[in-house]
Input
Amino acid sequence: MAYLDHAASTPVRPEAIAAWHESPFGNPASVHGVGRAARRALEEAREAIAAHLGVTAAEVVFTSSGTAADNLALVGIHRGRRRSDSARDVVLVSAVEHPAVAATADAAAAASAGTLTATFTVTEGASAAVLNCNAVSSLTQTTLAASWQSLTNGAGLSLAQN
Output
């Protein structure tokens, strides 16, 4: 059988499993020896990823899920940006975006006391060309962030332009 739904869950590569078994297993926030070893392994991984990406280790953030990453990105951008540029107060989200992004944009707008607006672009029945044109034409000087999903595994539909 061929497994084709890698957007939902991807099998772990054997070498990743082997590395995990070789690494110290413990809570990296603990002060005992196993916890300190786990913290070292975590920080070494952070530094390796940072070096590969050309950023500082402090800029690499690990989350427990895609939903947590979506929340961190949208809420973090809003909180950080409103301090330096309050004119950028619109988050654009495609109508077919993953619920984690859409719900976070909605919740951030609702909790923002008017400092953020979530705008959902209508894409129902739109071709890839129309979707991409709508995405670009929706960007304005007040756009803080934009999220357009180009592939939806739930519907098995590619929205990307060929």
In short: The helical segments are 14-22, 33-53, 66-84, 99-111, 128-138. Residues 123-131 have pLDDT under 50 and may be disordered. The first strand starts at residue 90 and ends at 94.
